[in-house]
Amino acid sequence: MLSESCRIYFHSLANVIGTSLLISVVFLWSLVVLIPLLITYYYTALYFRVTYRELKRLDSILRSHLYAHFSETLCGLSTIRAYNVQDQFLRNNENFMDQENRAYFLMAATIRWLCVRLGIIASVLIYCASLLSVIQRFEIEPAIIGFVLSHAMSLPDDVIRCVRLFAEVEANMNSVERLVHYSDNLESEAALIIPENQPSLSWPAKGEITIENLTMQYGSENPTVLKDITVHIKASEKVGIVGRTGCGKSTLATSFFRFIEQTSGKVIIDGIDITTIGLKDLRTKITIIPQEPVLFNGTIRSNLDPFNEYDDATLWNALQTCLMADKIDQDYCLEPDEKALLPANLLNNSSNPLQTEINLYSLVKECGINFSHGQKQLIALARALLRKSKLIIMDEATANLDHKTDQLIQNIIREMFGKSTIITIAHRLRTVINYDRILVMCDGRIVEDDSPYVLLQNPKSTFREMCKSSNMI
Length: 473
Ligand SMILES: Nc1ncnc2c1ncn2[C@@H]1O[C@H](COP(=O)(O)OP(=O)(O)OP(=O)(O)O)[C@@H](O)[C@H]1O
Fold this sequence. Notes:
Blueprint: H1 2-26, H2 30-75, H3 77-82, H4 86-135, H5 142-153, H6 155-185, E1 209-217, E2 224-233, E3 238-243, H7 249-254, E4 264-269, E5 272-273, H8 279-283, E6 286-289, E7 298-299, H9 300-304, H10 312-321, H11 325-331, H12 336-341, H13 344-348, E8 363-364, H14 373-387, E9 391-395, H15 403-416, E10 421-425, H16 429-432, E11 437-442, E12 445-450, H17 452-457, H18 462-469
Parallel strand pairs: 3-10, 3-11, 6-9, 9-10
Antiparallel strand pairs: 1-2, 1-4, 4-5, 7-8, 11-12
Helix pairs in contact: 1-5, 1-6, 2-4, 2-6, 4-5, 4-6, 10-14
Bound molecules: adenosine-5'-triphosphate.
Adenosine-5'-triphosphate (ATP) is lined by residues 218, 222, 225, 243, 245-251.
């Protein structure tokens, strides 16, 4: 929109300057009127610009409220209907529309105000040019007079367009200013790849982690979240992190990905300090199964394997291992015409699970809304299985599964990721009770670090207290 506004603005400006020059060259006396008119024009435009800019800003803000409310309503349609509050949301929507229209109406009124004033100024100029043509009718050729007057007639429109578009260009430049701010002034992440410091393809081969005096905070104005953490995690160890909400468990887990940079200290994975390598090299080697698994609009297949690296049988195996296969089988049986779309070799192969009416090509809606939270976590687990990382972080990954499924998944994890290091954040203590080690966190520090058995034997242990309060012992 900005380029189009600029184009029309410069076009109108050239017309206004050209016509004014033409009139003053042909009728020298017109300068007597032209100069005061230009001054009046300048001040009127200035007055208009300030008001219009503010109104436009107001309109944008109110419009964004309207759009936000509209999209939130669309996302929460089922909840709104469930609570039978459609009328309230309709009223709110009308209210937001009314408010936005107020600013829009004022903008339209301001433009009308300008049109009237500029129209008068331009008409005075045309009047003078016409008057001078009559007075100087014997001195100037009729053709030239006709030429000047025909141009002068378009002056009111050009003058109005010129000022309006100038204000519009200026208002649209706000967006440019914001983009420039985002691109130049905001701190960006570290380099994705540092060519002179790339880890080998097999890194991390063991999954051994050493954390030395790690301190982290979210921005300099916020309190320190991780305080001087030192811990060594052996290769293939299964470590559970527990602690009260807000004690820094997720922050410790995400520190491996450098989502926020550490304030001080070191995280060393298989001998490499993670701050010395590029973010892409780091992040592609670690797998996270997050609290809020992300699914994309597409199919189950495209969600499991976005870069098309695995065949269907491998994907299906991963789903079956994560206990998702039955669910998909039930929910998404292939229709005959859908079957026709599948590659023939998959359907003819008797050992292929696709023969049992499984559909990896089933639809996954935006944000995976057609799956339950637990199912989304199982799909995320299947993704992790496919990647076969040496280091896997699970942030409450099985929190939304029932206890039995959680246990089954834990067994699967132990079996399938036997040679990987696993760090699991768990609210449910049963999830990590069979792990090799438990780290208990409190207020950004590790207060206990031992095997679950040893911690449970210790009557003063916080972990024991936590197990007691959740009726495990
Ligand atoms: N993006 C953020 N910006 C500022 N502070 C944050 C941010 N994320 C977390 N925090 C703060 O850091 C502290 C630790 O949060 P963190 O999510 O690591 O805790 P947690 O133990 O994982 O909690 P939970 O069990 O509820 O997930 C909290 O006080 C939280 O308010």
